[in-house]
Amino acid sequence: MWRGAGVVLLALLAGCQAVPSQLPVGEPAPAEACRWERSSDVPPVTLNRVVAALEADGFLIRHTEAALGLVSAERSERTVFHGAPEPDIFVLGGSRSRFGHGVFIGGGFGVGVLDDEATEIQRVSVVVGADTVRVSRDIQLFDWRGELRRSRTASDASFCRELHDAIRRQPGEGA
Known about the structure:
Strand content: 35-45%
Helix content: 10-25%
Radius of gyration: 27 Å
Oligomer: single chain
Structural class: alpha+beta
Mean pLDDT: 78
Shape: flat
Largest sheet: 6 strands, antiparallel
Low-confidence stretches: 85-98
Number of strands: 8
Order of helices and strands: HEHEEEEEEEH
């Protein structure tokens, strides 16, 4: 009798699982300036011009895929993380084992500013399609231990306009 009830309960619980109505979306969405028509660009946008513009802005090119029209780049800089300080540690403890005795007394105290050294990494991807160019950027902040402290999408209008202008200023392919 209980076996039949267990099977019914299991079937009911399995039916409670739900599939999400939509996939996760990065927030905020890229600005309108991060997508533009290639037909409006004179001189035309090419992968070589994108690479040159990113390198001139201090980015290191990590990957290019000509078949997809993709350029991926990143740059990092040392900065300061304005986070919460680590708590002071005070330990008072003892240990007794079969082979001996021991007591450990320790304490900790820190004096200094509440800021830690950190590294900010910006990653940019540019896709040069047949009709449009799309730019996406994200910024991550890692503390001195290498732990991720902040992460956000940063495809804002000012960055994309500056990149678009820098691509236009690059010399021609034969130059």
